[in-house]
Amino acid sequence: MGEETVGAMRKQGACYLMTTGGAAAFYSQRIRRVEDVHWLDLGMPAAVWVLSVEKLGPLLVCIDSQGHSLFELVRSDAWKNVEAIYEELGIDRLHEYTWWPRAIPTARS
Fold it and tell me: E-assigned strands of the chain?
């Protein structure tokens, strides 16, 4: 989720909730009624579904109504860790470390 999404959530006072992957069957049992669907032309998974639900949870608040983003927090922490690991191992992240032979060896060569 990018800055535009976070800004829209803040502006609308909305939040973005997620759950663990593979739990759709469990959560589908909690849906009582489909109220509305927006942007269905984007496909069913990307559309915005307005649902009436009962006992839905647990869920993660990934973007809150004040614009705090779990995605950005995790991305930021991951890059800090990557930089620290590179430094500890003496790896120059701008160096090209991969090597590919010009010709792929065959059993006859």
Answer: 16-18, 31-38, 48-53, 60-63
